[in-house]
Amino acid sequence: MKTSSILKKANIVILALILRCFADASDESDYVTCGSAVKLSHVEKSGKEYYLSSGGHRINAGSGQQLVTASPDKGGVSSLWLIREGHGMDPCASGDKIPFGSKIRLTHVETGGNLHSHLVRSPLSNQQEITAFGQEGEGDHGDDWIVNPVTRSDAFWKKDQAVFITHDATQKHLGCSEQAKFSMNNCGRQCPVMDHLEVFGRGTKDALVQWKTTMGVFLHK
Description:
Low-confidence stretches: 1-26
Order of helices and strands: HEEEEEEEEEEHEE
Helix content: 10-25%
Largest sheet: 12 strands, antiparallel
Oligomer: single chain
Number of helices: 2
Radius of gyration: 21 Å
Strand content: 35-45%
C-alpha cells in the first residue's frame, strides 16, 4: 500500500477521533450533575414560567418552616438549588451525572435549607406542605427526593428535560399551580411573596408536577 494512502486513512481516523471527542464533550455537557447549582422551572397552562424559590420567610401556618414558592422572577440567587447526594449517603463526586431513580437533596444556595416535605397540609391548596428545612445543608430523610423522566429517555437526567421530582418518604410529587397564588387576599398587603405560587406535594402525576432545568452553574468532569 502506498504511503500516501496510509497517511490518508490515518488522517481520516484521527479526524473521526477528534470529532468523537467533541461530540462526547458536548454530550456530557447536556447532563445535570452533582454539585451543580440549578434553577428548576415549571410552565403553567398560561405559558408563564415559574422558578422554585425560597428566602428567609416562614410559613404562617402548618409547620412554620421556611417557605418555598414558585416565583415568576428568574433572576437572583433565591431560585438556585445545589444538587447533592441523599441524606446519610456517601458524597457524590462533583460533575457526576444524576441517574434517574437515585436519591438526591436540593439545598437552597442562599439559606442552606434543604427542599423538604412531610405529612402537613399546605396553606393555600390543602395539599402536602413543601418547605426548606435544616441548617447549612444538614437536615433529615424528609429532604430526600427522586427525579424521574416524564417520558422515556436514557438513564441520566438531562438539561431541559421534563421530569417529576418525587418526595421519597411520602411519594408526593413536587408541584405548583396558578390556582394557588399568593395575593393580598390570602397573604396581606405586605406579602413578601406576592404573585408567587404555592409549592405543594401532589399524589397525581400531571402537568402541575413537571419541572425542567436549563439555567444554573453546571459542573462537568
